[in-house]
């Protein structure tokens, strides 16, 4: 196909941008028929120069608009611009941008039928062929329109085109109309919107004047041309006239005109327009949501993302800081265990921040060290602490209570006639078991013994305080078990006793009994005496109403402490059982023995599920957190197992490992703290690697335990017993309330 130089190839360049389609050939005849009585509506090309455009361009020249009942006319100015193809794309980034197809399509009705019109480039080929038949149209000087620019004009004249008469001869069915011809090859499957359709049949051709030609459309704005000499150029360029003209244009014409202006705008103008538009259109979705919905959205972010989001702006920071339910959820998801004082003094977000810093200090071994003296040279048999106090039991018959912040010895609880070998407290109630065969209940704050529970005939080797808690049963139901607070004690006399835990607030103060014969208080608190083992009861584990006991008779027994009945006797170990644990998630119990094995049993059926072998000698300690089972033995090693299938994951040993029997350990899903001759070590639970030697150069480690913030070890050093407190909640938290 041949292109004629300087000839516009789009119908948009030959027609006004009106929402109406071009009239048919009879319309042209109507204009010629009235030529002598009324001057024909002058074409755009007969009044001014046209603008050439590579894509689809619409020119507005001396255009007026009237309603059916209005005589006011708004005049469009002459818009002369350099063609986009001649603009430097570096300075005019949109100069060569293609016009979006949505701007080039118009919809109309004719004879009650819907139709579509597209740009000249989409029209039937015969129309384009008509243009191609014209050679060197710029040489037609007699018909070319030359509009001189005024002296004060700031725009550039466009190229010259043929006169209106010449154009009318070339394209007789495309007179001075705002739209392409209704003949179209658009995809007829495109959806139509009824409310956007323009009714061509409503045109009233009788409305015309000698000076101004208007086209009236029912409920539709009309755009037409007026003679160039009817209105002065200064009026056209008045800003108010420009704005009024733009306001009355149909939406699709406004969009098209705006796009063409942007194509001719330099980069700095586009940048300014973009900044203004983005600022207006910008909308903060999160802030505009209801707070409850916004918190649900925020709950899907991790802690790091929440902290970053709080730095977006003040509104986000305020929203995130006050999203208490979100931070409460993060505490649970992260496994943080805030203390009672932390809950009272800090918001949930502050609690998360504190524990993240403390967890980081653990990884970097950043701690403050404090030494506490006590128990002289005697063995520390049991240890428990919280964020206020440390309580230790010793073979010297005493219980020491320390202030954990200052390290001062607050009080010494005396009364037992033998070494204290078992200890646990809940709130203000402390329960201890001793070689003197008694169990004592203490008021910690007052430092006095409130009750002595007698009945065991030998050393009370182990005990547990069990508080009612929500238990998820195999059928999915939830119950509170046990029905009341209880004490479970195991003794070398081969028995287990279940006691009601005295309520120190409700129970009246009574004189302490001096012997079993006149002891009526013990009988009042005793619930059950469990007799089945044939040797000393070495360890106990409790979950709800499930009690598991391990004995030197090589057996493990499962009990129901609500009824006091035996459920299963688990036989399989060939030597003494030293430790037991319960896996409530899988309804399993676990036992470690002198036969160097670890066995996993089914609580419901009593069957042995797995036998974990690898230790060389006595397995004296067990710990279970989630799916991570850890065993510690007298062979100086610790082993990490998968509790779900019994697979061994890691062995914690080697040249950097412990050199003697493991005497104490505790673990969570991040770390394992273990003690033995020589010191205390910290291991990585996820990899089994040694992280740090927390305590070195000590003769022995009796007990070690930790919480989120502190690690406390009872050690023998230089022929005396000491408590070493490692506080990981100091670095990075200086000046904060601890």
TrEMBL record:
Biased composition (Polar residues): 16-30
Residue ranges, compositional bias (Low complexity): 44-54
Gene3D superfamilies according to UniProt: 1.20.1280.50, YVTN repeat-like/Quinoprotein amine dehydrogenase
Residues annotated as domain F-box: 283-330
Keyword Repressor: no
Highest taxon of source: Eukaryota
Residue windows of the WD repeats: 413-447, 477-501, 530-569, 570-611, 612-651
Residue segments, region Disordered: 16-54
Keywords assigned: Repeat, WD repeat
Annotated Pfam families: F-box-like (PF12937), WD40 (PF00400)
Name of the protein in question: F-box domain-containing protein
Classification of source organism: Eukaryota, Fungi, Fungi incertae sedis, Mucoromycota, Mucoromycotina
Gene name for this UniProt entry: PARPA_13220.1 scaffold 46252
């Amino acid at each position: 196909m041949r292109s004629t130089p300087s000839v516009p190839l789009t119908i948009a360049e030959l027609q006004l941008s009106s929402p109406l389609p071009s009239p048919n050939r009879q319309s042209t005849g109507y204009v010629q028929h009235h030529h002598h009585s009324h001057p024909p509506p002058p074409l755009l090309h007969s009044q001014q120069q046209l603008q050439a455009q590579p894509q689809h361009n619409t020119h507005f020249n001396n255009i007026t608009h009237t309603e059916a009942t209005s005589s006011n006319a708004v005049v469009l100015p002459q818009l002369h611009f350099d063609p986009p193809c001649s603009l430097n794309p570096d300075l005019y980034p949109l100069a060569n941008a293609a016009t979006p197809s949505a701007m080039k399509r118009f919809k109309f009705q004719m004879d009650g039928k819907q139709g579509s019109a597209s740009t000249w480039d989409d029209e039937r080929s015969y129309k384009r062929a008509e243009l191609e038949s014209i050679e060197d149209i710029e040489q037609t000087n007699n018909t070319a329109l030359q509009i001189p620019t005024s002296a004060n004009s700031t725009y550039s004249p466009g190229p010259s085109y043929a006169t209106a008469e010449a154009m009318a001869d070339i394209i007789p069915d495309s007179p001075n109309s705002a739209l392409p011809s209704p003949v179209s090859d658009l995809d007829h499957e495109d959806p139509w919107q009824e409310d956007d359709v323009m009714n061509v049949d409503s045109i009233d051709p009788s409305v015309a004047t000698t000076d101004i030609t208007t086209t009236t459309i029912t409920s539709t704005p009309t755009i037409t041309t007026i003679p160039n000499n009817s209105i002065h150029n200064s009026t056209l360029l008045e800003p108010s006239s420009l704005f009024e003209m733009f306001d009355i244009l149909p939406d699709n014409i406004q969009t098209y005109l705006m796009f063409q202006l942007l194509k001719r705008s330099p980069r700095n103008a586009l940048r300014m327009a973009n900044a203004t538009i983005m600022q207006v259109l910008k909308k903060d979705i999160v802030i505009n949501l209801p707070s409850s919905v916004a918190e649900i959205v925020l709950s899907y972010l991790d802690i790091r993302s929440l902290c970053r989001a709080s730095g977006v702006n003040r509104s986000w920071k305020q929203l995130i800081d006050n999203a208490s339910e979100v931070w409460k959820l993060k505490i649970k998801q992260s496994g943080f265990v805030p203390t009672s004082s932390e809950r009272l003094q800090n918001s949930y977000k502050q609690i998360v921040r504190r524990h993240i810093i403390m967890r980081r200090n653990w990884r970097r071994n950043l701690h403050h060290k404090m030494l506490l003296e006590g128990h002289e040279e005697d063995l520390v048999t049991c240890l428990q602490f919280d964020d206020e106090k440390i309580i230790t039991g010793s073979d010297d018959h005493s219980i020491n209570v320390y202030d954990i912040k200052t390290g001062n010895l607050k009080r010494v609880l005396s009364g037992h006639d033998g070494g204290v070998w078992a200890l646990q407290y809940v709130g203000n109630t402390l329960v201890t078991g001793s070689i003197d065969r008694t169990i004592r209940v203490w008021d910690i704050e007052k430092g006095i013994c409130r009750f002595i529970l007698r009945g065991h005939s030998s050393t009370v080797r182990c005990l547990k305080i069990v508080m009612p808690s929500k238990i998820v049963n195999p059928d999915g139901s939830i119950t509170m078990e046990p029905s009341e607070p209880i004490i479970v004690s195991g003794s070398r006399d081969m028995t287990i006793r279940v006691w009601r835990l005295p309520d120190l607030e409700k129970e009246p103060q009574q004189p302490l009994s001096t012997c079993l014969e006149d002891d009526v208080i013990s009988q009042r608190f005793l619930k059950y005496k469990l007799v089945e083992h044939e040797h000393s009861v070495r360890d106990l584990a409790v979950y709800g109403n499930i009690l598991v006991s391990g004995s030197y008779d090589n057996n493990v027994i499962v009990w129901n402490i609500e009824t006091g009945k035996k459920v299963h006797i688990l036989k399989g170990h060939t030597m003494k059982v030293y430790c037991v644990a319960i896996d409530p998630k899988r309804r399993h119990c676990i036992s470690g023995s002198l036969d160097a094995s670890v066995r996993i049993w089914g609580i419901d059926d009593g069957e042995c599920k797995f036998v974990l072998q690898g230790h060389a000698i006595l397995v004296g300690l067990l710990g279970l957190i989630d799916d991570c089972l850890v065993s510690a033995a007298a062979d100086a090693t610790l082993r990490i197992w998968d509790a779900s299938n019994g697979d061994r994951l890691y062995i914690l040993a080697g040249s950097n490992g412990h050199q003697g029997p493991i005497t104490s350990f505790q673990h969570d899903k991040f770390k394992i703290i273990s003690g033995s001759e020589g010191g205390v070590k910290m291991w990585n639970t996820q990899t089994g690697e040694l992280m740090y030697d927390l305590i070195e150069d000590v003769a022995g480690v009796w007990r070690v335990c930790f919480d989120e913030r502190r690690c406390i070890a009872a050690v023998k050093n230089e022929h005396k017993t000491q408590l070493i407190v490692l506080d990981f909640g100091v670095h990075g938290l200086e000046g904060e309330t601890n």
